[in-house]
């Protein structure tokens, strides 16, 4: 299996607070890899460092065989890595369709943008129904679908999803997770950041648990579901 993403010894600090301390992980081609942990564990900092939103003070990030540790965020998107941030961050005053069009900002071919938007509408029929509706009037689940769809218009080879289930009803969580599986099966690798370990490990191939900026447990999804520490801390008895 080819390696899509390889992080080694990553360190990030906010002032005197160490957010990541020598973190390492990999994502292989065609994989869904879950990154699990409690609030403040360093999950969001990890994806922010990968996408160039925050800068590391040590370590390296390699994507598709190229060192991108110091690359600017727009360049990382052009390389095929797209970050769907926690909280969705859609453009609330723009329509669904306009939000999707902005997902193709770095794509020079307008025909590719149009084709990918239609693929998003196929994946999320509700978005097609609401294409002329302002993003801010959508429900939380619909906004999450829009955020994921907007990322897919960029044509990512790796999509990083930060807490996509946060604040959503269980039925909507299941719909979002099904969409992630469909995106993965269509050829996009996924790094899934989740507090909802149960939902994440249902669809992931492998996973990492981080605590205080360090990887504490790693293994296949089945191994993590059977690990007593993971069960006690994240899955319940």
UniProtKB/TrEMBL annotation:
Family classification: Belongs to the ABC transporter superfamily.
Domain of life: Bacteria
Source organism per UniProt: Streptomyces naganishii JCM 4654
InterPro entries: AAA+_ATPase, ABC_transporter-like_ATP-bd, ABC_transporter-like_CS, BCA_ABC_TP_C, BCAA_Transport_ATP-bd_LivF, P-loop_NTPase
Keyword terms, alphabetized: Amino-acid transport, ATP-binding, Nucleotide-binding, Transport
Pfam family, one: BCA_ABC_TP_C
Keyword ATP-binding tagged: yes
Keyword match DNA damage: no
GO BP annotations, alphabetical order: L-amino acid transport
Molecular function, one GO term: ATP binding
Signal peptide boundaries: none
UniProt name for this protein: ABC transporter ATP-binding protein
Domain ABC transporter: 5-237
């Amino acid at each position: 299996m080819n390696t899509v993403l390889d992080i080694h010894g990553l360190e990030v600090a906010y002032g005197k607070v160490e957010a990541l301390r020598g973190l390492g992980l990999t994502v292989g081609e065609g994989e869904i890899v879950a990154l699990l942990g409690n609030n403040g564990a360093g999950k969001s900092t990890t994806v922010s460092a990968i996408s160039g939103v925050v800068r590391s003070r040590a370590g390296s990030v390699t994507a598709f065989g190229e060192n991108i540790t110091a690359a600017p965020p727009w360049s990382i998107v052009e390389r095929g890595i797209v970050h769907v941030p926690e909280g969705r961050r859609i453009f609330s005053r723009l329509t669904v369709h306009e939000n999707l069009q902005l997902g193709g900002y770095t794509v020079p071919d307008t025909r590719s943008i149009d084709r990918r938007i239609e693929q998003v509408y196929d994946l999320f029929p509700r978005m097609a129904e609401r294409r002329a509706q302002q993003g801010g009037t959508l429900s939380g689940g619909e906004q999450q679908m829009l955020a994921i769809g907007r990322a897919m218009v960029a044509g990512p080879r790796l999509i990083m999803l930060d807490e996509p289930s946060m604040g959503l009803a269980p039925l909507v969580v299941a719909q979002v997770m099904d969409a992630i599986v469909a995106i993965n099966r269509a050829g996009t690798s996924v790094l899934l950041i989740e507090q909802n370990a149960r939902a994440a490990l249902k669809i992931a191939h492998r996973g990492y648990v981080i605590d205080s900026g360090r990887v504490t447990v790693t293994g296949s999804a089945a191994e993590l579901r059977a690990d007593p520490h993971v069960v006690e801390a994240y899955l319940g008895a």
